[in-house]
Amino acid sequence: ILGKLRSPNLFKLTTLRYDLHAVLPVFPDDREISTLVNANQLARNRLYVSSIIDIIEFLVSNELPLRGTIDSLESRGEGGSGLFLSLFEYTLRQNSELAQAFSTIPRNSTYTSHDIQNEVIELMSNIVTEEIVKDIGESWFTIKVDGTKDPTGCENVSIILRYVDQSYTIRERLLSMVSTKHCDALSLTNVVLEELSNSGLCTDKILSQCYDGANVMSGREGGMQKLLQDKLKREVPYIHCFNHQLHLVVVHAMSSENTIEDFFDTCNALYKFLRKPTVSAQYSGEKLKRLLDQRWTGHLDTVSVILKSLNTLAELLSELETSRTCVDVKIEAAGLHKAITATNFKFIASMIHKVLGLLDPPNKLLQSERTDLITAVQLIQHASDCVRSLRTDAEFEKLWVNCGSTEPAPPKRKRVVATSLQQYVVEGSLGQHEDNNEQECKRLYFSTIDSVLGEMDARFNERNSQLMDGLSALDPGSPNFMDVGKVKPLLDLTKTDMVEAQFAVANQFLQTRLIGLDGEKLTLEKLVQKFSTVLEAMPCVLTAFTHALTFGASTAMCENSFSTLKNVFSEHRRSMLHKRKAQLIQLAFERDLSSKFHGEWKEKLLRRFSSLREVAKFVSLE
């Protein structure tokens, strides 16, 4: 030991320690001399790691790939190095302080490898999930689940949670995008419950469930909605997604008449015809939309374009019919020209545009996370009333007159009198008359409207249930507003005691305040936010209101997450692991949360990263 004490290196270090004590002030927190000596280096290291996190956050939030064909820091300026290394190189050029920090970083600890990227992404996803769970707190929530297959054939299950946060704002968050090989009801139920448990959420707080109408989800005996209630051993109301139901209304109503099916077949043939290079070069009108079975809004878009560009389409087809072009094109153009210039074609297009146009606004509003179940039922009811108002002779006549400008295609052959009628006076043709055509269109008009109304009445029957009566009693515009008898079944779902005195006081208070709003219409969410301070003194009433807001009506958020899946899981990223795919989808979908890693959540992420990599001495956390 004495020999080691005589070491010249130890003597220099001891001398340096004494010199530092002589020139530096003594800090009350007793920080180590090594920290004081390397303070600048630690600050540079912190800037370096922080910049790497910022680059990763930017790429994942914007659904952009990180890696390229070359995954080497030395090749970061070359083509194929990927967006992460390219942005890293660009940031070095723009930030001289970062470039200086980079010059002092050991080349075996640059923290730019794909392993580091994956660790940062996983930490970010974990923090986002934790913050979602924290935001839910003790609130009740609705689970929304839907699934889709990615290009590799893997089933991806989107789990969305709907809840009311502490500011009484409705939130819908993507908890996870789970990959599974089994799509039966029991497997899906177990996957969802396991994901909730792993995230730290209590399944006892599930208030309702919202899925599409597939048998695996909605089955009364073996569907996921029933299995979930069996596992939880209590009632958890199931809501059939209103957007899916509205889609089924349109599909079934529009397929009830062969004439309408033929109309859409013509539209589809016209769409394909206009995509031919020789035809598209000559077409100057608005581009037709593709018809999709799973998206009825495409039918509305197609009809809208056809009505706007009908004359342009007719002129184009007429020119192609007589032009010196390919025989197949001429024949197809002649057939399409005859079809779209028929009198009933424009009438059917106008009729469908009228009906679907009334269903489009509620369809869009239902996709908003702000739309609660009460509002959804009201939207459907108003849309149904609007469609019912079309069922009059006056509305038909108005539509028929507007479509009278379409002239039928001229005959190709000159009409001659049959030889068997040479000895007779022919006063008119024996074919179909205009009056007969009008009568057929009138029959089609009323039949289509009846089909739509019948489908809507059959499918949207939740408003007649006991649950809907309870929710409606919490609507300020309802004649049964604050009726304790109707609200009680809603509170029974969560075993909340009904306190009639609180409802009586709240009813008197709210009725008085609503009168003084000068006609201002308050949604249920705004009402709760506006009077939350008063309602907090009546917890039973506040619980009923928050329950009503928690019930969702659509799985549109699940559909939106599938769009994120498509963008993230692009053609050149098919080799990524399911875990990384799920994390990237969540971070991109919850962009408003991911952006916080650039600000208020940066410190938390740095500490997690330092703890994980044991680089606390590499990155200053003070």
Characteristic terms for this protein:
6% strand, 622 residues, RNaseH-like_sf, five-stranded mixed beta sheet, Nucleotidyltransferase, domain 5, HATC_C_dom, alpha/beta, DUF4371 domain-containing protein
In short:
The protein is globular, with a radius of gyration of 34 Å. It has a 5-stranded mixed beta sheet with strand order 3-2-1-4-5, sandwiched between helices.
Descriptive overview:
The chain is of the alpha/beta class. Helices cover 59% and strands 6% of the residues. The protein has 29 helices and five strands. It has helices at residues 2-5, 8-23, 33-37, 39-61, 83-94, 96-103, 114-136, 185-198, 215-218, 224-232, 242-254, 258-274, 277-280, 297-322, 327-340, 343-366, 373-389, 393-402, 434-459, 466-472, 484-492, 500-515, 524-530, 532-535, 539-550, 556-568, 578-589, 591-594, 602-613, and strands at residues 141-149, 155-164, 170-180, 206-211, 238-240. Strands 3-2-1-4-5 form a five-stranded mixed beta sheet, with helices on both faces. Helix 8 packs across helix 10 (224-232), helix 14 (297-322) crosses helix 15 (327-340) and helix 17 packs antiparallel against helix 19. The chain is globular.
